[in-house]
# Entry
Amino acid sequence: MRLIKRGGKLRNLYIFLVLLLLFLPIFILVAFSFNESKLNVIFTGFTFDWYGKLFENPDLLDAFKNTLLIAVASTAISTVLGTIGAFGLYKFQFRGKSFIDKLLYIPIVIPEIVLGIALLSIFTLAKIELSLWTVLLAHISFSVPFVITSVRSTLYAMPKNIEEAAEDLGANRWQSFWYVTLPILKPGIVSGALLAFTLSLDDVVISYFAAGPGTNTLPLYIYANIKTGISPDVNALTTLMLIFTITVLALSAHLESKKQLERVIK
Amino acid sequence: MINPSRTTIPRGVFERFSQPVPAKTATTRKEKPSLFKTVFTLPIIFYALLLIALPILYVFFLSFLRSDNYGGYLYEFNLENYGEILDSTYLSIFLKSAVIGLATTAICLAISYPFAIFLRGKSERKRNFIMKLIMVPFLTNSLIRTYGLITLLRKNGVINSTLLNLGLIGAPLNLMYNNLGILIGMVYTLLPFMLLPVCSAVSKVDQNLLDAASDLGAGKVQKFFKVYLPLTLQGAFNGSLMVFTPAIGYFFIADVLGGGKAMIIGNLVKNQFLTARNWPLGAALSILLLVITFLLVKLYKKIGGNLDELGGG
# Structure
């Protein structure tokens, strides 16, 4: 009996250690955002100064604003495009459909660097100047397939005749899509959107190629400064971003579970 | 006598039983063009052709051109770029990339399996919570996380100073600006891509099979090799695919943690496009990466893997 218990403790310890490994670099970043010294080396004393300094660094703020704008815009566009596309591909048969289906897996499996240089090449060919817009296009390009995959999984689980039932009851196809299909697909759409948002925030490689010399996003700002040294205002920004995103996620999860509870009670 | 191996079982029967793939054709209908159909199909067709097919085809086309050495290219079709990438100068970089890619994949697998098996015993609530926690690091840009790693790994970093203070080492360890640094960076950055599919596959293993194995006297090791591993092969391959390809492409990790000299294929491609400005050569290298990826995907499909599960966990 005791042996089993100790085994259980060891298991918990292992799970904890792996999670710690994933979080350690982030914890360190957060810890050093409160460090007096400009160098992220030794903890010399506690301060909130870097949070103030953050707002005196226009470049960093600009990079942050751009990163967030791109993440929000690319999430919105890819979610709409992906949802419509997943439904269309599920519902309709047309020439070349299987080819389109196959194409949609490409951004998921190919190395990001290949998509990055491919987009850079095509932008250059079309004489589109590299800017925030090309970064946005690039982010849409890699996000849409993830939304489609996520929406498709809920589409397949959808009761087969429910749309026909709606149409029999007098709804036209637009109405049945809007009032029947879309609400059913919501969990898939939400998790697809969440995935698109995270992918956009996390991306380095594709942004690197799709951005021009004057384009300033967070990964590019850090890439430019990482070798000469980054001052702790970046740590402060990272901390604020983490607090923000985790709060939003926790809140949305809380609301979702509350809604589910209400549904059960009803 | 009927030879059991000769009895024909239609292809795909096992796949159909092992994973529920709903019939696609049931609701797809061929119908006349309508506004409804156009709205729901045209945008995605445009997207797929313009933002996926066209760029990739163009890279393929570029790979057969000749560089003019000034960042442009001449429309003289040739295979020299492919000849050049097979040249010995790049062979060592390919070899190193392959070693780093495989080592990263192996380490991630070795960390993920015990994690997934231990997690299996937890309640569903706890499991879901921990799976969500795994995703949290992604909310911070991977370059920022790499920067966090630097703070930990460098000569006067947190790990070295802690070990020195504890008296465990006499001199700081070289944890970065070398191949070890690249490996640590890759494992750290890509581990979640392995954890998610492996945990999801392991959680689906039927408890009855494990109990039966125990009843028949199987130990932990046997249970792992005879039950878990065969039943979670697809999940493991899914994760390996999502780990291996970035591990040979993530140039920023090699740049930042490997110091200036350490290169992987990703750096090579990046340099051809942005520094050496030999786009045709960079394009040929990218096509090589594409071919490797497609072969791996083919293999994944061959073992019954579902493409929809890639990347989503």
In short: Residues 90-309 of chain B form a domain with the MetI-like fold fold (CATH 1.10.3720.10). Chain B has one domain: 90-309. The two ends of chain B are 46 Å apart (CA to CA).
